[in-house]
Amino acid sequence: MKHQNYFNNFLTNTVDLSKFRLETLERQANAVYSALNADSDLGPRVIKKIPQGSWAHETIINPINGREVDADFLLQLKEEPDWEFDPQQYNNAVYRALHNHPVYGDMPHGRKCRCVYVNYANATHVDVVPYIVLSDGRKVIVNRNDNQFENTDPEGFTAWMKERDQVANRNLRKVIRLMKYLRDHKGSFNGVKSILLTTLLGQQVEAYKKVLDVGYYADVPTTLLHVVSDLDAYLQANYVKPSVADPSGSGVTFDRRWSQETYSNFRTRIHGIACQIKAAYDEEDQDESVELWQGLFGEKFQPPEATSASSSKFGASAAAAGGAVPTSTGRSGRAG
Description:
336 residues, alpha+beta, Beta Polymerase, domain 2, 2 domains, 7 strands
């Protein structure tokens, strides 16, 4: 049985990041962007901010207790011809703007391979990824460790995600959040980055399947059943780790993000999860079906209480203003 009301309640009150935390993330990202844009050296180079990752894709979930959540955004900068052979200067310029800021300079901040980050005291952080559209049309970010450009098309990936989600009647993003919950909170599979999970699940959504069965993506449990079953069929047909290309058409792959060992474990676990989903969905006895769904998602998979109120923000508008929060200790992870 579907138990759609259970799924709605489970997503809203257990899986999804709360409206408050999502709006807090957005305020913090906007505040960081405003600070960078106001910097006397970096500001004239800034073009715009482009949200990316789980935040942009609406697939961010509540983290495991003690873990941080993050807002990633690309900071599009003007191309600097003098930095053509020393691209790490883009990252360094962003870092200097944060490091010299009267607020962010006193907060935990630093540089990683492809981003500059700042940590907040409320278990959140903002990652800023320098992004440049070169004169030859290439869209790139900077690998600071190797001091070289890397092709990317984050806006193209977000557009692809939106199109796949629309085909699935706005249920794909919810399925991705449910699968992330199984990965992060239930430990159903490990080592699979969100970009891989999102791409593999999204690739299973096809418009022709709705032609063959108009109800193929009718609701959350039906979409979950079909997308995970289709992914299972794809994985079972590929014993060796397949190449996973960026669906935006950037020309890059996500292959470096996992190993054959990680893939093999994922392949085995998805097969088991697909069987559990089908058993719970097909079970005609209500109580037994609920028990099977709870065997997959845990005891928090419950019907809504009559007085419960929604705390989910997805689909709602967020506040535009921003502000900094006092500093915290170092970063410990991310929800996406």
